[in-house]
Amino acid sequence: MEQTFIMIKPDGVQRGLVGEIICRFEKKGFTLKGLKLQTVERSFAEKHYEDLSKKPFFGGLVEYIISGPVVAMIWEGKNVVATGRKIIGATNPAESAPGTIRGDYAVEIGRNIIHGSDAVESARKEIGLWFPEGPANWQSSLHPWIYE
Ligand code: DAT
Ligand code: MG
Q1: pLDDT over 70 for what percent of the chain?
Q2: 63 band by pLDDT with thresholds 50, 70 and 90
Q3: Quick check: CB of 83 below 6 Å from ligand 1?
Q4: Which atom of ligand 1 is nearest to the CA of 85?
Q5: What is the dihedral of CA 122, 16, 106, 101, to 10 degrees?
């Protein structure tokens, strides 16, 4: 089953949105396979966003990610990478649809409260970086009520 890496950024944690965000993924029918609250080092944040290292906003992005604890998660389910991105909404909250997490709770691109992997391959890479111990080994008993 497909997995994705979801991270609630420091502003999402500070603003008390952890429960609300987890709730949306849970109610959708996805399964939580990893969860931790963690403040990361600069070098770790730079590694996570290494593909963006040439962008002019990279420095500010790294400062933001290390500014407080984040909630790192693994979520599992059918098409969870693409559907997770839909639940999160467009990168710039000014363009995120209402009903998405960023559309409902964020205003600026540099404070967009949540990260989600953009492809199955980047999810695999990000899960490996954030959860070297691997995902939790459990199966939800709701499975037959969510999948046919
Ligand atoms: P996403 O987080 O939607 O996958 P991304 O991977 O392109 O978006 O960029 C990572 C983060 O960097 C994004 O959540 C917010 C920030 N960012 C992206 N584009 C930006 C820009 N033009 N100005 C400022 N911050 C930006
Ligand atoms: Mg991205």
Answers
A1: 100
A2: very high
A3: no
A4: 3
A5: 60
Whether 146 maps to a domain, the answer reads no
| Segment 31-49, tens digit of pLDDT | 999 999 999 999 999 999 9
**Which atom of ligand 1 lies nearest, measured to the CA of 116?**
4
For residue 15, tell me if it sits in a domain. Answer: yes
pTM for the whole structure:
0.98
What CATH number is attached to the domain comprising 131? 3.30.70.141
Domain total in the chain: 1
ipTM > 0.85, yes or no: yes
Q: Which domain holds residue 85?
A: 3-135
The secondary structure element, H or E, covering residue 41 is none
Of residues 114, 102, 135, 130, the one with CA closest to residue 3: 135
